[in-house]
Amino acid sequence: MREEVESLDTADVAASWVSAEVVRAGVQERIKALADLSHAPLFFGRLDYEDALAEGPPADGSRGGAVRQHGPGGEAHRFYIGRRHVHDREGDPMVIDWRAPVSQPFYRATRRDPQQVRLRRRFGYTHGDLTAYEDEHLTDTTEADRSSALLQREIERPRVGPMRDIVATIQPEQDEIVRAAVEGTVCVQGAPGTGKTAVGLHRVAYLLYAHRERLARTGTLVIGPNESFLHYIEQVLPALGELAVRQTTADRLVAHFPVRGADDAPTATLKGDARMAEVLRRALLSHVTTPTEPCVVVRGSRRWRVPAYELAEITEQLRERGIRYGAAREALPQRIAHAVLIRMEQAGEAPDDRVQDAVARNPAVKATVKEVWPAVDPARLVLRLLSDADFLAEQAAGILDDQEQKTLLWARPARGVKSAKWSAADLVLIDEAMDLVARTPSLGHVVLDEAQDLSPMQYRAVGRRCSTGSATVLGDIAQGTTPWATGSWQEALRHLGKPDAAVEELTQGFRVPREVIAYASRLLPAIAPELEEATSVREAPGDFAVRAVPAGELDAAVVAACREALGREGSIGLIAADTRVDRLATALAEAGMPYLDPGRETSEAARLTLVPASLAKGLEYDHVVLDEPAAVVDAEPDDRTGLRRLYVALTRAVSGLTVVHASPLPEALSD
Ligand SMILES: Nc1ncnc2c1ncn2[C@@H]1O[C@H](COP(=O)(O)OP(=O)(O)OP(=O)(O)O)[C@@H](O)[C@H]1O
Questions:
Q1: Which of 30, 31, 567, 577 has the most crowded Cβ, counting Cβ within 10 A?
Q2: 374 Rama class: left (phi>0) / alpha (psi -120 to 50) / beta
Q3: How far apart are CA 174 and CA 450, in angstroms?
Q4: Annotated binding residue 193
């Protein structure tokens, strides 16, 4: 198919140079999307529908339908399922895209509800060669249910390199989220390793397939916790043929200025509080004044006077309409001009639209607008709130108490927006102020991963980027490691502007071995008492060891544990408190053990990554060596956050975990 696209002659298809370029760019994109994936086989499944299906499976109105009449080998009811749609030279489909409606039963059909599927076949590959298959005769009542050995093999395989797609083994409860309707926002709570990230990425791929035109116009975005994480997941969507999905972090989303300052936890928490939105709104509207002077427009020999009371009425109407500050500011001169035009008509003139535009641009009208509804720079507004105690007191009265106002004020007021030492939380405030002035354009769909860590103001920032679209919100309350981490999804969704979103839960763990998840879950009563322990679908027991060593021997013991782990297959993550990373880096270097930073891709040749605990979220390694849990806990501003950070670190392991400690373990983990 790629060759077919490559051979397309685009020379004469377009009328103009511009449209020819557009067609050419489209063809290039398609060639890239069809690029061969050395490790990804063309198909991974087959469905044989019951004969009755010659009439076609349930009406779906999309591409799946065409295939039924022209199946390979002339069989109308057999479908091979793969990552891409593939057709033969005659244009007859050979492999159906996993996202087509006709592929859905591959993921959802059961013996109880076979969905007209007679046979489901899964194919297994080893290094690209077809080496196994597995059949389920869904309508055969005598056949016993068996768990899939191929699924098991996929889950248990050693991990190296970036995250991979899971199209061949998406589970029914995951598939329901992946294929949920585009109009609705879905929120997924799930314990570590339940596939939230995987589901979110496959959902965008699905939505792009099902609503390609709409989403190509409006755009899609994936938001992750940090750059290492984005690097880890960046190949999943291209592998599924989707190249146009932008990926970013919540911080980068609002990076209107460089971050050069930092807030302590209470200040950042307060700046992230949703009440700040009201303070900002008030502060902005405080610039609107009630006119006291008339507006006098001179045109030729005539003077037209709009009295102050009428200007006040116009201003009040605009205020009440609740439109953006900037939009109202643009509407005001037209409204004043309209008032002038009415007077002209009353005087027997017949002004047209051009006259209204000219009046709106009249210096007297401009001067009135400047006075009554002045232009406001959003960053300057935030700067003033954080620097000017009187202004803040006025705008925050009844919203923030005196102590909170003191917390917000900079010790040393900044001189200008360029030189100000903006913190990450300040930029979110600026983003809010920008939206109050001019509406932020909405995308079609946003996937927000590790959402539990966002502040209410950050949820608002994400929410305005999907205000007319929808979102997939993924997270785990137990992994919230910011002091402002959300306590409830309902609350988070309210701040996001999607209060009616459904909250789904994923409970089957695909990553962490049973013994390790049980150990980590001992922290749950302290960090998220309302959550249940996750299950593990991994059958392999995993290696798990906790080693206590004398203080002077900690570094050496950690290095030894890494060396041991390197004796096995797969990637190794040495996770340590950020404060311990430099020391361990030196110890590894002295031991002659090369290591990578998180975000750099592991490979067979470089399998060890030294991971600061603050960057471990969302990542996974075959074997994790966890250095000094007490230091991980102590690095955080409070105990709960510390224990949550530890929970994240403990749950990165796919097949083995070695905890090495010299200081006592947190109570819940000591026997
Ligand atoms: N249906 C599946 N089949 C095979 N592997 C799966 C499936 N679902 C998830 N996985 C694998 O399980 C691992 C964990 O998935 P993922 O990172 O999406 O979980 P998560 O819930 O986002 O975890 P965390 O909360 O720790 O970030 C990944 O390696 C993923 O590929």
A1: 577
A2: beta
A3: 17
A4: yes
Instruction: Give dist(CA 298, CA 419) in Å, integer.
Output: 43
**pLDDT tens digits for range 145-159:** 788 888 888 887 777
Token pair for residue 490? 């309902």
Q: Which phi and psi (to 5°) does residue 574 adopt?
A: -95, 110
Strands (E), 507-596: 508-509, 535-536, 543-548, 572-576
Interface confidence (ipTM) of the complex:
0.99
| Distance (Å) from CA 442 to ligand 1 centroid | 29
**Relative to the CA of 510, which ligand 1 atom is closest?**
12
Pairing of strands 117-126, 129-137: antiparallel
Could you give the percent of the chain with pLDDT greater than 90?
A: 73
Span from the CA of 558 to the centroid of ligand 1 (angstroms) = 27
What average pLDDT is seen over the chain? Answer: 89
Closest of 200, 189, 183 to residue 448, by C-alpha? 200
Delineate the domains of the chain, giving CATH numbers in brackets.
2-33 (no CATH), 288-372 (no CATH), 512-669 (3.40.50.300)
User: What does the CA dihedral 255, 236, 62, 109 come to, rounded to 10 degrees?
Assistant: -130
Rounded to 5 degrees, φ, ψ at 536 are: -125, 130
Residue 456 to residue 495: CA distance in whole angstroms: 6
Ligand 1 atom with the smallest distance to the CA of 168 is 3
> How far apart are the CA of 512 and the centre of ligand 1, in A?
9
pLDDT of amino acid 353: 87
Is the pLDDT reported for residue 455 higher than 90?
yes
